[in-house]
Amino acid sequence: MRDGTVHNGAVWAASDAPVGDGPGLSRDVFGFAGRAVSTGLAAVVYAQQEPATSGYGTAVGHEKRQTRVLVACGTSGPAPTGGSANRSYLAAVDFAVARDGRLATAPSLVALTEAGKPTMVGDAAAVAAAQAAVDAARASLDKDRQVAAQIPQTQANIGYWEGMFGYAYVSFSGWYRQLQEQQAAQQRLGARQAALDTAEDALVTVSGGTRGGGDTVVAMPVVSTDRQGLTVCGALLAFAWTEDAPFLLDGTGGDVVLYFRGGAGQFFSAYYSTLVTRATRSLGAGADRLEFVARDTATRAKDFTVRVAADAGSAADLCTVTVTCGSRTETYLRVPRAAASLAAVLNGNPPTGTLLGIVLSVKDRLVELTAPLSAPLAVGSLVLVGGRVRKIDAAAPAGATTFTVAGDPVTAAAGSQVTAALYDYADATAGVTGTDLSSGSRIVAVTRVGSTAAVVADGDAKDAGDGVGPHWRGHAPGRAPAFDGTTQYLTAVNGADFGTDGDLTLEAWLNPASATGTVLRAAGPATPYGLALRGTTLSSGISFEEDNVIECGDRLTLTGISFSIEMWVFRQAVNREDLVFSTGLSLLVGIDSSNRFLFGGDFGTPGRADLDYAVTTATVPA
Question: I need a labelling partner for 520 at 20 to 30 A (CA). Which of 192, 271, 476, 561 fits?
Fold first, then answer.
């Protein structure tokens, strides 16, 4: 039940029973708070793409990762800021998809946040800060590119020195450590590029579109997160309205395209980017570190925290890890401090432990093995038996053939294996009832950078990159400078050479306030040139006076070839001779004084005694 009222003091009882999570298809419903659906629906399945490198190169490509479903429809209701209540604004809802194909669970009423044109800040301090962020992001990207480019040479050096002196020498000399740092830099390239793109998008906003990247970006807000960590994003698109059902298409250029018909029948489109990166936090582990990466691309670095602290009553090599994201909290007790083990626990993939023995028989909580233990089992140590992780209840010395576990009776078949276990997920709890942590954290994944012997100390993970979440994008307006026409102008940098000894083409896109003005002037010492506007009537042809000619010189060679002569002629008067083309006495093309078409003086057709345009084509054989 989604909606209802509790009466007479009844309370909800917490339970982890999977109510409603049966196999097969399921049906769910939701609505928009304060709005009603007014058009047909459109939906598309797409995959978010994240930056990645391959091989040993530094070029950043994209890999398809998380699958999502985007739904859009027209809605009626209160107008967004600056909008009109008579318009049917589009609503968009974006669902994450679980591994088993289920959509993220949405609330019964989805509250839509307005997504429209971002506010342009434009003050000098904000622009300077945004530009500094762009410069810092570009410097970080360039640095990692330089480090990653050294991977092939480092691998060649390792191969050479291993062949000469063996593994121990290469390990002692630090070559492996150097290679790890270079590979880590390569893996960061995608995030570095995304950070630069994000910084440039922010610069677009604060500079009013005059600096930064070429896009204006509008974030798609998170509506809800279900108990499995899957998000639903949604917004009321203040820039899109229609009376007809929209259409969604997963394009090939990194966008889902939203097509819709405008109020006057126009064909419009909006772009929902599939290119994303994940927010990251970092925590030191000796000289190495752990990187905690948000599992959901809509999670920002400011939204989640990771803390490692001492585990009360446990050995020094164990700790408590607490992960939070908004109102959600995950607590992992008695986690090994070894970096590799901590990462495996939070990722939900602890390695298979050492084989301890084979089950001979089970009686209550006592397990008998077919062979003696080769190593002792301490109280509280973990074993995997009968498909469950159990804690040893009483110490079992080496050579013993039995051991006892704590808790309920053991169910294990004779002949099944008993192995050491790294972690018992019964020691992991979530603040949201029904959240299953047996497959690891629903908030973060962990990447280890460094040696396997690194140990994680107490502390809070620091912001290591915010990433780029789901967003709408559009070309930034106002990318051309405006001039007052009198005192404002642009000058070339010192040393710029605009001189030319040959032909050149000048092109400009202008929105002039007056019909005259200089666009460009190059006053070089060799050949000065320029481009300007002159107020005049636009003509589509050349106007000749009686004695005007165009001299072609010796560049037009017609001897021995066939050619065509085509002309558009508008005569200013009739009953006069108008010679249009001539090669001397051998070829004459024009109109004679009798208003007849003249070709070579020997052939003609009746002319037209009026001032209309005439199109005439004459073909001269070779």
Answer: 476
